[in-house]
Amino acid sequence: MTFYFFKRFIFSERAGSLIRRISWLSLIAISVSVSAFLIVLFVMNGMNESIQKRIMSLEPHLVIQKKESTRSFDLENEPIFKKIKDLETPQFAEFENQDVILGTIDGQFRGGIARGITRDRFESLIDQLGNLDVENKNRVEDIISWSKDEIPGPGEVVVGIDLARSLNLFEGDYLTVVPPEGLLLPPGEAPPFEKVQVRKIISTNLADLDAQYIFYQRGLSLKKFSNTASRQSGVEVWLSSGKNAEWLKSKILDDKYSIETWVERNSALFYALRLEKMMIGIFLGLAGLIASTSILTVLALLMSQKRRDIALLRTLGLSGQRTMKLFVMLGVMLSFSGVGVGLLIGTGLGYYIQENPINILPQIYYDSQIPARVDWLLILGVLLVSSVVSFLGSWWPAKEALSIEPAQSLRIKN
Fold it and tell me: Which pLDDT tens digit goes with each residue over 30-59?
């Protein structure tokens, strides 16, 4: 019976042109707002997943440093590494970090981070970058290759592309590297420095790496800085899955070591992404809520224009509560018609983009693709919130049916 009245009172000729047009506009507005909400959040899910995947591929899952010493580790005898081997099948690589001041022959200066890694780690980094670029490019010829023959040797470094642009550097140029504590020397005393050549400029599509880091092979460059106060050494740990990093950290905690997971090192980025997603979701949700308020207009017009019909229904034996329930269901059906269409469009386009990422962004962006990831929990949340909003939005005007007196309404002429 509800579906019969839904057709007769809202979308039929008997409903009247005003109610019919507003109903169609309400249905379209709700459909567009729900589909836009889902598509945007699915795309943001895909972008966040793409960023996390790239970070897990290029950055170590755990970074372990001694708190009391900066000396190199003895991987065979350190108790913490024995614990890790008992719990996981990791890969270890020693590294050294140092804050530096970089100067060019043109007189430009900028701060950066010099990171010394092993040759094996360089080879692994080249392979990982190549795999990620192949996944994210439609044409292999678009990939800027980095071969293992271009691993930096003695007196050579690899520079992130954003850092190179800020210093106007090209491959083959020379950099002067100075430790920051050299600025604290008394006047007239020259700070230690080392001149290095740019072997390769790379793009990792990670802002921190591209904008701050220079990489060199441990033991072959920046030897003069081996005893500087700002140099730190540690061990990078790669796990079978980066998602195990938090669990493994909880199992190997030790007061003698400083342990950071890839999530902790990028916590500011992940917080910004969550905040961005939340704010966009709130504003898109408010837009959908505003569109859904048009149901109030439809039901208010319906109650005012169909008072005689409602009075006839009441006279034929339909109780006030049953009448109110009928009009609540009419509003809910109208709302869910729009929500259902929006869910179908949004989910369908989300799955299409998930399987066929769109390549329309220029290469100046870190990720030129527009990916997506469909989240069924989000779809379920939309259904639950839509149910509550549609019920409340329909109940408010429908309760007017209780105040209609059949005898009085039947006396009124149209």
Answer: 888 899 999 999 999 998 888 888 888 888
